[in-house]
Sequence to fold (369 residues):
Amino acid sequence: EKGGFDTFMEKEIHDQPQAVGDTLLGRTDAQGRLVLDELRIDEEKLRAVDRITIVACGTAAYAGTVAKYAIEHWTRIPVEVALAHEFRYCDPIVDERTLVVSISQSGETADTAMAVRHARSLGALTVSVCNTHGATIPRESDAVLYTHAGPEIAVASTKAFLAQITACYVLGLYLAQLRGETFADDAKAVMAELHTVPDKIASLLTTMDRVQEIARFMSDTRAVLFLGRHVGFPIAMEGALKLKELAYIHAEGFAAGELKHGPIALIEPGQPVFIVVPGPDTPNELHKKVVSNIQEIRARGARTLVIAQEDDEEVTPFADEVIRVPHTSPLLQPLLTVVPLQVFALHLSTAKGLDVDQPRNLAKSVTVE
Ligand code: M6R
Fold:
């Protein structure tokens, strides 16, 4: 049942090309237009949406944060990401033109279910992005968009995360298509590119030997930092979460732009730092800015573990290690850059002799508040 792998997590990391591919399946017509009849929500209601709030916890909330960048860019609808357990208590601004999108692998997370109930009581339109058929959250929502990652057994979420980003992108592109006039990119072109991602993940997975080796020699490490910018920021947060829960190592994710506002004080000789570098073609010179962050921390002795696109030569002089990912347009990069971070946490946990699939103190689905 582990498909020849030692752990469910490793198997599920390798299921990711299929998780993304299956989540895209059947959601476009022959012309490449998005068709989401499964939502069964009146198109007029969706067109009227003027605010989106994503509610989720943990890894699902990071998927939502990645999606925020894309959905706002494509639709120009303001998107807020709320941790589900905070949402109910912050007097949220929600009305019948608010689309509340919950993201949950299990569909049973109590905090998320209660956030959805609260949103409905305030009149919001609720859509559940969920991996489990017939679970509580999709049953209690107005509509559901299933992720097709297949059952996820390991406590640490991997393939569900990629499927959640994919499903949220499909939803964002669909909303953009409905609204037409404000659309920044061509939905068909984005969908076509999304369809190329599973093969890229599969090829990336064949190049993870060095990441495994790096992890193997880091079992004494006390703290690891993760930096990212734009969609790489939630990926840095996710990389840190994976390391905390699997290897019990203190790990923090930061937005690279925050460095000089505090976190750079943490840099001392030998401090390992992962940097998720935006592709060289990312707008607003973000690539250049992150490369100069790498320079800054390297000058202070950090050990720089750089995740960069295959065509990115500029990072090489400042990297102790470069982990290459295939080329994609900027918004699709998270579907690739997270993979080495998952593999790193898996192998560091293994190197420490820990239980990868069942980390201490954690449950696969958190059904109490
Ligand atoms: O089942 P859900 O997606 O609602 O679960 C949400 C979080 O509890 C979950 O993602 C958790 O953070 C994972 N253990 C992370 O790997």
Remarks:
- Strands lie at 51-56, 79-83, 98-104, 125-130, 143-146, 223-228, 250-255, 272-276, 303-309, 321-325.
- The longest strand covers residues 98-104.
- The pocket of 5-amino-5-deoxy-1-O-phosphono-D-mannitol is lined by residues 57-60, 104-106, 109, 112, 155-157, 241, 245, 362, 365-366 (CB under 6 Å).
